[in-house]
Amino acid sequence: MLETITRQKIYGCRYWKEDCFGLDANGVMSKGVELKYAGSTFGPAHAPSPFICLILKLLQISPDIDIIYKYIEQTDFKYLRVLGLFYLRLVGSTYDIYNHLEVRSSKER
């Protein structure tokens, strides 16, 4: 799902090695609560953001879709919600995407 060069940069970054190693879905949720922004890579070296590191971790562990729905349904932490929505957009079925993404975007306009 992520390009090889992006994955390699993620595997080499400090955040991945120190904070993402051994995380499960609950650990990803804890780290998602701490997110300050959503992004991919930044700076001249194209360093990966914590957000994209957590996306890769979710892709690796493939949590149950009900856990992702919990990320999306909570309203206290907007970047955790964005993490869930982004992951759902990557791996969700057409039905899931329509019922969760499209409905949310029309409600929030």
Automatic annotation (TrEMBL):
Cell compartments where the protein resides: Nucleus
Coiled-coil zones: none
InterPro entries: PRP38 (IPR005037)
Principal localisation: nucleus
Keyword line: mRNA processing, mRNA splicing, Nucleus, Spliceosome
GO cellular component: spliceosomal complex
Nucleus listed as a keyword: yes
Keyword Nucleus: yes
Family matches, as Pfam families: PRP38
GO biological processes: mRNA splicing, via spliceosome
Family stated for the protein in its record: Belongs to the PRP38 family.
General function of this protein: Required for pre-mRNA splicing.
Protein name (Swiss-Prot/TrEMBL): Pre-mRNA-splicing factor 38
